[in-house]
Specification:
Residues 22-250 form the SET domain. GO terms for molecular function: N-methyltransferase activity; protein methyltransferase activity; S-adenosylmethionine-dependent methyltransferase activity. This is SET domain-containing protein SmydA-8-like isoform X2. InterPro entries: SET_dom, SET_dom_sf, SET_SmydA-8. The protein has 501 residues and is α+β, with helices and mostly antiparallel strands. The chain has four domains: 10-52 and 207-248, Beta Complex (Beta-clip-like); 56-206, no CATH class; 250-357, no CATH class; 378-501, no CATH class. The chain is built from 20 helices and 18 strands. The strands form six sheets. It has a four-stranded mixed β-sheet with strand order 1-2-14-11, with no helix packed on it. The chain has a four-stranded antiparallel β-sheet with strand order 15-16-17-18. Strand 17 and strand 18 form a beta hairpin. Helix 5 (130-136) packs across helix 8. It is globular, with a radius of gyration of 25 Å. The protein starts with 9 loop residues before the first helix and ends with a helix. The relative contact order is 0.09. Bound molecules: S-adenosylmethionine. The site of S-adenosylmethionine has 16 residues, from strand 2, helix 8 and strand 11.
Length: 501
């Protein structure tokens, strides 16, 4: 692989659908390697650029068993293609041009080993390797240009490739190429977030222009993925000409030690940004622990947050605690949190929460994460919809949304995706309050309208956006001329409204 002299046209080689590149330029970054920089002032909320994935597919270590190798639907109807054995979910997928290309590549280039149980194991291994096979299908020019993308320096065992080699005799140059591809994917791919509607597996893709965005723990962009996996990057705050355009590679609300360790482990660098350098994390105290020196009610914070072996100090009684003791507490915390079933439960075990309060203040990221999950889940589970929430739970939802929105604002994250989601849920809680007590509507109206309008501006077009986002904006947003009773019609029977539109 050779390195061409210029990066200017690189994304265009990989994607016919790159728009608004005139707003950005790829050049050397003080953060590391190359980065994207604004050629002009970019206002908050504006589209910066759009690019389509060069390749996309499920993660190689995904758990799901039956995934269509063409449309990535999870389906028990999947059956192995009669020629290449890759799973397809329908004759349409089997006959699609993409599948035919993939199928003929596999049949023409890889010979099956005799001792392998083709029907049982091959489809699954192939489904997990689809993104890699797509790299092999790139043009020669594109494959040459892959040399421009940064690669991971960490050499892990590439288990899925090993499994593929148990099934097929792979040419030596394919094995070498796929190892390079793996090191490129690790550093440059994006998780494509989408709602679970449509029963699709979580995907990741290589986006040629987005790949040059460096990380910031307070980024100035958010990503929107459309239904055809186009990635559009918007400004979450005003960006001045010459500013670096950044994205956040971790969870926005993770605490500094967790973000920094994850970045080091997965992307091979230590972050030194303003947030990482501030032991209060912009006043949010996401990393703070409770002082061990009872009855002191102060918080322990790292003296030098950029130093992994720093002492921590209490901001009230000023005692110092060595990092070894802090690490021990953090690992106890990690295992306690691990026992909370946060993904599918909104009932949290009180005894665990009580044990957590011994170690951590309300501001700690563990509680922030629990509050965020509750804010989003209350009234939005299969068991209980928002109309069935008790008064106290509805109040709780509203206050959890407001609290988490304050944390996002304190971090300076601007119009991040998370802010959009929280505004949507705050809107839903307020609208439900007004539906139950119509006499409160006038008082709540302006906030009901502003929250849905802002949520819409942030989330519109994204495949992970709530399905009734647009309808709510239409009926409960600003400018709706329907009478009060009709406005709430959408909340009474959203399906009926959808059908009448
Ligand atoms: C997706 S690439 C970004 C583009 C990359 N800088 C390049 O030259 O191709 C991610 C890699 O960029 C570097 N990087 C990104 N953000 C960084 C930051 N805030 N500080 C230091 N290095 C960073 C790291 O080496 C990381 O693995």
């Amino acid at each position: 692989m050779t390195r061409p002299a210029t990066l200017e046209n690189l994304p265009l080689y990989f994607s016919s659908n790159v728009k608004s590149t005139f707003k950005v330029v790829i050049t050397n970054s003080p953060l590391g390697g190359r980065g994207l920089f604004a050629r002009e002032r970019i206002n908050k909320g504006s589209l910066i650029f759009t690019n389509e994935p060069t390749v996309y597919g499920p993660r190689a270590n995904c758990e799901v068993k039956k995934i269509c190798s063409n449309c990535f639907h999870i389906s028990d109807l999947c059956y192995p293609c009669g020629k290449c054995y890759a799973y397809v979910c329908s004759d349409i997928c089997n006959g699609s041009s993409d599948h035919i290309k993939l199928c003929s590549f596999i049949c023409n280039n890889w010979r099956l080993k005799n001792n392998w149980d083709k029907i049982e194991k091959t489809p699954l291994v192939l489904a997990r390797m689809i993104i890699y096979v797509q790299f092999l299908l790139l043009s020669e020019k594109q494959r040459d240009l892959l040399g421009l993308f940064q690669r991971s320096q960490i050499k892990d065992t590439f288990e899925e490739l090993n499994k593929l080699q148990c099934i097929y005799y792979l040419p030596e140059q394919h094995v070498e190429f796929l190892n390079i591809v793996e090191s490129i994917i690790k550093i440059n791919s994006f998780r494509i977030s989408h709602s679970l509607i449509g029963n699709k597996i979580e995907l990741r893709g290589l986006y040629p222009l987005s790949s040059f965005m460096n990380h910031s723990c307070i980024p100035n962009t958010r990503n929107v993925f459309t239904s055809n996996y186009l990635m559009t990057v918007f400004a979450t705050k005003d960006i001045e000409k010459g500013d670096e355009i950044t994205s956040c590679y971790t969870g926005l609300l993770w605490c500094s030690p967790a973000r920094r360790y994850q970045l080091y482990k997965s992307k091979n660098f230590w972050c030194f940004c303003t947030r990482c350098n501030d032991n209060t994390e912009m006043g949010t105290k996401l990393s703070a622990l409770k002082c061990f020196n009872k009855p002191c009610i102060g918080n322990l914070l790292p003296k030098n947050p950029l130093d992994l072996q720093t002492k921590w100090f209490c901001n009230s009684c000023k005692i110092f605690v060595p990092y070894t003791k802090i690490n021990m507490i953090q690992s106890v915390l990690g295992s306690l949190v691990g026992t909370l079933r946060l993904d599918d439960e909104i009932r949290l075990e009180n005894n665990i929460l009580q044990r957590l309060t011994i170690f951590i203040p309300y501001s700690n990221h563990v509680f922030v994460d629990i509050r965020l999950r509750l804010a989003i889940k209350l009234g939005f589970t299969d068991d209980v919809n928002i109309k069935e929430l008790s008064e106290s739970r509805l109040e709780l939802k509203e206050s959890l949304c407001r609290g988490t929105l304050r944390t996002v604002a304190a971090l300076g994250a601007g119009d991040a995706h998370l802010r959009g989601l929280l505004l949507y849920h705050l809107h839903a809680a307020l609208a439900e309050r007004a539906r139950r007590s119509p006499d409160q509507y006038e008082e709540l109206k302006s906030e009901i309208e502003i929250t849905i309008e802002q949520a819409y501006n942030i989330l519109q077009g994204d495949i992970s956006a709530p399905p009734d986002l647009e309808l709510r904006r239409q009926y409960l947003g600003p400018g709706c001329d329907k009478p009060q009773e009709e406005r709430f019609f959408i909340l009474d029977s959203p399906d009926k409204v959808t059908n009448t539109l």
